[in-house]
Amino acid sequence: MANNILRISHSFYFGAHNSADSSIMNVFSTLDLITAHPWSRALFTTYSLSLSFFESVVLDALVRQQVGSIVILSDIQGIRGALSEYGARSAGRLYEVEPVVVDNGSFHPKLVVLTSETQAHVIVGSGNLTFGGWGSNLECVDHIHPEFAADAVEDVAGFLESLVRSHSTKFAAGKICSTVASELRTIAARGVRTGRVRVIHNLNRSLFDQVGEITTELGGARRLTIVSPFYDELAANELRNRLGLQDESLHVHEGGVVTGSVGLSWPTHHRERTVPVIAEWCNEKKMRPLHAKVFEIVCRDGRIVVSGSANATTAGWGLNRNVELCVIRLQRGNTSAWQLSHAVAPTPTCRVIEDDLVEDKIEGVLRATLTSGQVSGSVMTPFPSGLVRVSRVTAAGEFEVGPAEIDESGNFEFRAGNLETHAWTNERLLLRIKSNGNSASGFVMFRDLSDIRTRVGAASGSFFALIAGTETPNDVAAIMDWFYEHPSDLAAKNWSARTISSESRASEATIEVATLLDPNEAEVLHGQISRSSDGPGWRHFLEGILNCFREPRGPLTVQSKSPDNDGQGGDTEDELVIFALPDEAKQRPIKAFERLFEMMLNAPPTRIDIGLALRITQYVCDRIQPDVFLVSEYLDKLVKAFIQHPPKESDRDIASAAVMLWATRLNTQTDVSRARVTRSVLLRMGNEVRGSLPEINLVHGFARLIGASTNFGVLWANVCQYKTPQEEVRAYRLDKREKLTEADYPFFSSIPEWDLLKQPRGRVIHILSQYSDVCPFCHNKLHTSSASRLLESAVTSHCGKILLCEEL
Amino acid sequence: MPSVTLSELSNAASLASDPARSSTCTFKPGGVDPLGLRQINFDLMDQVLPGINNEAYHIRTFTVVTWAWLRAAKCARDAGKTRISVRELEDFVDRIEVLYAWSQFWRDHDADLPGKDVLAQIIEDGVYVFGGKAWQRRQEKRKYSTSLRAPIYYGPALKSLGWLLPDSEKKGAMIASPSVIPALAAFEAAMEAHLDHPAFRVLGEVKVSEADVRKWAHCWALEYPTSAERCAMANSFLADGSPLQRGSRLICDVVAYLGSSKDIVAVRRTMCGAPTDFHAAQDLQSTLDTWRTLQIRQAFRLSLEAMFHWSLLQLDDGPKSTRSLVALFLQQSGGAATIDNWFREARNEVISPVDWLERLKKNLADQASLNQLPKLIRESLAAVLIEAPQSAHKERHDRLPLARANHEVNRYRESSTQEFLAHVFESWIFGQHVYWAVGRGLADARAQDKKILRLKIIYEDHRWMLAPGSSVSTPAATPDRLGTALSLLREAKAIA
To answer: Per residue in A780-792, is it b (16+ CB within 10 Å) or e — as a string?
Structure first.
């Protein structure tokens, strides 16, 4: 009997395939699909997870397509691996990672769903979100869309809905799964149903049952060929029994199989029931390790191909074990089966656990969200309830956050406090909780970022890059353009008042009295607070942006190929060189900045914030490095603006530093006159001219470009020492002495009028409290040179009198 | 444009009778500065030797480019033009640059100028027409590569050293600075006999032959600047107000102390002070300190990049867990009970940070001694960490400032070497690498720029492995501009 069956089987193995059918040789790249359309949402499911792979390859492609919502559902094993990757920075920020716990098994489906307003495409395969799964291994991939398999797309929607309802899985991404399911159903409703391709899962019924039924529908099985890296004999027996077959053909892969933690690569018992073959489907020029799972069942009335995540194991095909997702293709009538060729059975191997991977204790997995200053989460793996210590895990180490209480269901909640500040930096948030020798860790999804993305739109990538410190000149331009288009977000109330809290201790924070007395101001403030998107998230986002403008980051650079290849050749490490931004690359950000700069300097009084303008200017100078003459021009305008709109208390130090730097560009004849002009400006701004030298580092962005050789200590000493002419006028007015000395009036004593001034005062000297270019005696307009002298040197002569002016 | 359209992919999917096989991903590998540590070094270089790079070696090149702008303006004036496009001016300057390089390569096949390879055809043909589409293509190509005023050559220094100033209308033209006019006059006097040639006299298309170029070659020879040019360059470095003044003075003092500038390593070492006997003038002490900090940072960076390099070589044999890498590293570097001891026992020698840098370079260059690399890394880290500042000041946390590194060492002081080295591998080496490789890639993605896979290692199934297509190239210290400064100061006769 056995011989007879083998003979029949052989005729299938070597004779039935029509080799002209090239479609079985298709190769597919999910990256191609991602880059082929402007998708708005992407959902991935995986068992293993390499975030370094995901961020450098998949996220890269998604960012290029400006995909707004990106979610990964991963088995906790995948999460555990990903937690060790300190360098992967965007989890919880640019995309969400949600752990899935499955009772008695693993979360094993490998699904990609890409949707937009008009399209819904689905990939079901065997490849995890790893380099191996996306290219290094041989994987199977089924690309499905409603134009030919709307019913299969609806099956995927059904899978996601079942996942949400399932009692054997624990995860917190129910809402996103339901949303994606709904989108799939909406678009599938307009599609074509052929019944040729369906998607099956084992959340409700085993794959054994479902595939068995379909086989019966096609008149019963005549041959089973299995391509799978893992295998268990229980599953093989069950499958043979369900299909009514005495044996199965098992593909022997020349490229070997991937290592794994379950199953064998070949049966150890009843080996006579397994025929070693090489399946044509697996042929490729350069053999890769096998990770694909494909089952071909040739039936009396057709052919079935099952492909996807399920290995030839009981965990894969049974019920209440792994969660699996497969595509089942049904071909009725005469169809072409795979061509099989003889192979030699390999020696069965199973994964050897190396000593170095044995961990003392397996870490639990948690997940959390940070929204509006509140952290909420749950421990996904068993964890005792009670008080825990929470810490933040970073590449630099672990930092205590505080205590939290875990309830009976593993849930916890606490105020984020400083944690939120870190969330706005460029690091991912990773929490660890510890209690009595137990620990669990996991990612924090920063939900406020979603609101920011919605509000900022296409510029969000540029803003996040700014926060991460990886901005490009185009990002700088995009940010400047965005603020230009949204001037209300630059209003002093939106920034400075808020940032004071982060700049100084709460007890030192001050508020301008004028703002408390101006009802219009209150209205503006009220109006802003009432907008939902101006909540703490937005406020902290703006604080984060302002912190970036404060940070010394240094000039942006570009990479280029080495000089002598003249633009030819590859970007290998040896050929790349770094150089300063070329002028062309500076043009766009400078133009965008200058537009914003002018707007900020000319803003209405209620919105003007020269301190902020100074910080933004400094940031642009630091990063983009405009020509020195432009930098001087900006500084000049800022100093003049500060004279018109004296700096707020929190801006005084930086304003003083800016004036010191500005002074280095003054075209004065002597150091003393430079010092006097500088002092005058500082006094007009209401700043102090005593004490220690203003911290020039506060204006590092400008200082990098100008004033490098100045001895600021000497300049400041002069500024402190030499009073302005106007100050001498004031002293002169108050001086009741008969005889004045040169030492008390160093400026006056240097001008021609000194001989008259030092005499006891008479009618010839008149002191103006405010500057005017009209003579108070003859009421004629002063000559331009006289007016100018009065303004700058506080003294002039007119109609036989000496006019002094004490207004700075 | 995507390589495959959605419609093509959809059609293929609807026709398929079987699942597809996953395609092999092919990535263009690349990337420099794998751990993202370089910017802090650049910032330190900017404090001592700002405005110059590692390529602008010769005074005469400064003169030629500056003179070309001035000459272009004179040609426009002589042609009766009251306004001229920047494009026309650039065309003239480009021509002068190419003629200059051509003539110098004719004199000396190994002349220290860019573009030897790309000029080969012109040199071989012996004649060239500076006009038409071929010339335009050449101009376009050389703009960011072999042009003398390209950002990687003399472009930045021409401006930062004050030889060229932007035009007042900000249109992109450059004007020769008044401070270098005497230098240009002296240069033009030497060239006077040839200035009647259309190449120097007219804007627009001109034809030049090798016979012409030969005549000029010696008159504007690269290595013979006039005394006026030397004086202009000396002023650029040493005059009051020059941002380079303090750094240059320190160099001059060190060269005077050594008696020669020939041994660049000796100059670099002495500029760091101890353990040499050199003491800087009081007002240059902070410059010396900054230079020393730079060299310490250079040694720190090369140590960590060497560790990354060593890891890649280990992973070339197959994936490994952090624990395996730590065990291998300790096997080669030697162990100790605590990390405190591990470093202390490695501090046997007091040598300059520059010498640690040299030892690392030498070891990395010699494949045969790579198994001694872990021991050397241990020693050099021990030496540089002891000089770590208390605070990172303005240095970015994610650039791994030395202060942060030292702070982390202190936290692990009583821990086992295994625990500390696991942290170093996962955070300082692999963490830094992934962070910057991914971050730069995403920056390119946002700008819809080139796609390069900078990632050299990946973490999958709890093991580190080489990323597909990644190459293992030897790390090198970023040049610190000292070579350029020495060359220009030597040519200016400011140092011996």
So the answer is: eebeeebbebbbb
Eight-state DSSP code of residue A698: G
Neighbours of A344 (CB within 10 A): 7
Helix H segments across A101-206? Answer: 146-165, 174-188
Residue A456, CB half-sphere, CA atoms under 13 Å: how many? Answer: 26
Q: How far is CA A490 from CA A62, A619, B4, B286, in A?
A: 30, 16, 43, 40
- Res A112: pLDDT: 98
Count the neighbouring beta carbons within 10 Å of the beta carbon of residue A378. 21
B25/A135 Cβ within 8 A: yes
Any idea what DSSP says for residue A362? Answer: P
Please identify every stretch of chain A with a pLDDT value under 50, giving residue numbers as ranges: 1-24, 352-356, 492, 494-533, 561-576
Report the gap between the CA of A248 and the closest CA in chain B (Å).
Answer: 19
Residue B316 buriedness (CB in 10 A; 0-12 / 13-18 / 19+): exposed
Element (DSSP H or E) covering residue A565 = none
Torsion-angle region of B465 (φ positive above 0: left; ψ -120 to 50: alpha; else: beta): beta
Residues of B in contact with A31 (CB under 8 A): 25
B161: its two tokens: 């050293």
Rg (CA), chain A: 37
Give the count of beta carbons closer than 10 Å to the beta carbon of residue A189: 11
Which of B21, B391, B409 is the mutation pick for testing A, counting most A CBs within 10 A?
A: B21
Question: What ipTM was reported for this prediction?
Answer: 0.87
The type of residue at A494 is N
Give CA B365 to chain center in angstroms.
19
Contacts of B215 (CB under 8 A, 6+ apart): B194
List, run by run, the mean pLDDT of 10-residue segments along chain B (496 residues). 84 93 84 89 90 93 97 93 91 97 94 91 92 93 89 89 83 89 96 95 95 94 96 93 90 97 97 96 95 97 97 94 96 93 92 96 91 96 94 84 95 92 96 92 85 90 87 89 97 95
**Angle, CA A285 vertex, CA A283 and CA A290 arms, to 5°:** 50
Which H or E element spans position A10? helix A2-15
Task: State whether residue A479 is helix, strand or coil.
Answer: helix
Beta bridge partners of B208: B128
| CB < 8 Å to A461, chain B | 446
Contact status, residue A382 vs residue A364, Cβ threshold 8 Å:
yes
CA A448 to chain centroid:
12
Q: Say whether A84 and B471 touch across the interface (CB within 8 A).
A: no
Contacts of B125 (CB under 8 A, 6+ apart): none
Report which of B88, B84, B69 is spatially closest to residue B177, judged by C-alpha positions.
Answer: B69
Residue B413 and residue B419: Cα distance in Å, rounded? 10
Provide the token pair at A178.
Answer: 């339901």
Residue A631's identity, in one-letter code, is V
Closest residue in B to A56 (Cα) is B438
> CB–CB of B243 and A708 under 8 A?
yes
How far apart are the CA of A242 and the nearest CA of chain B, in angstroms? 23
Q: What is the pLDDT of residue A700?
A: 85
Interval A571-604: pLDDT, tens: 333 334 556 788 888 999 999 999 999 999 998 8
pLDDT value for A496: 42
pTM of the model: 0.80
CA A255 to chain CA centroid, nearest Å: 38
Q: Residues 6 or more apart from B440 whose CB is under 8 A from it?
A: A470, B31, B454
The partner residues of B207 in beta bridges, in order of sequence, read: B129
Q: In whole angstroms, what is the distance from residue B237 CA to residue A167 CA? A: 76
Q: Please state the separation of Cα A233 from the chain's center in Å.
A: 47
**Do residues A444 and A79 make contact, with C-beta atoms less than 8 angstroms apart?**
no
Yes or no: say if A565 and B145 are a contact pair by the CB < 8 Å rule: yes
